[in-house]
Amino acid sequence: MSNITRILIVEDDMIIAANISLQLTKLGYEVTGIESRGEEAIHHLRQNQPDIILMDIHLKGQIDGIETAKKILEIYDTPLIYLTANTDEATFQKAKETRPYAFISKPFNKLDLERTIALVVEKISDNKKENHESNTFIEGLDDRIFIRSNGKLIKVMLDDILYIEAERNYCNIITTADNHLIVCPLNSFCEKMVSKDFLRVHRSYVVNLKKLDAVAESHLEIKRKVIPIGKMYKEELMKSIRKV
Prior knowledge:
The protein is of the alpha/beta class. Helix content is about 35%, strand content about 30%. The protein has two domains: about 130 residues, Response regulator (Rossmann fold), CATH 3.40.50.2300; about 110 residues, CATH 2.40.50.1020. The chain is built from seven helices and 16 strands. Strands 2-1-3-4-5 form a five-stranded parallel β-sheet, with helices on both faces. Strands 11-10-9-13-12 form a five-stranded antiparallel β-sheet. Strand 15 and strand 16 form a beta hairpin. It is globular and about 55 Å long.
């Protein structure tokens, strides 16, 4: 992240959005833009790649704030802060699934905004420091990958891997014997993984096709672990299953 934190505001009330933009600019942040619809926010993200997104949960239009956040997370793991007003428990639980960094309740004052964003910026900075001290994915070969851990390389055989789960900028590699948490976004992991036995089935999961125990309409199972199937990945999954 650059020295100046860049923030995208996604809010369909233009008066509120303009007020937030003015306050953020006064606090020294760069506002990359104001978008009022989820589809426009996704396009903006691709073009500008802000450091943080302020997202209204109850966006009007084709997709609300939560659905917009889900689509964004399929592209980038951008830190998200929800703007909420009178959010019921069910909506709150749905919002939590997108792993936001914080919630700001409407109406909010300048101090609420200032403190929340300062805390999120600090959390992002701390995560970056941790990344330098954590396990990293070094190289992928035909039948194995190597992970650097505590100054040495650890070999993990591909045939032992059941699935990989995304945890923000980390990947948790689940094997038959143990787990390996590495600093590597799932998108990067997919680019490095050369084996055709591994397929992304959800924004948060890559699975070893040879380890599938069951496939249902909206989920699959590996060793009793239920893994959701994302709509955009389902067709490729069904094609791949026929080849296994």
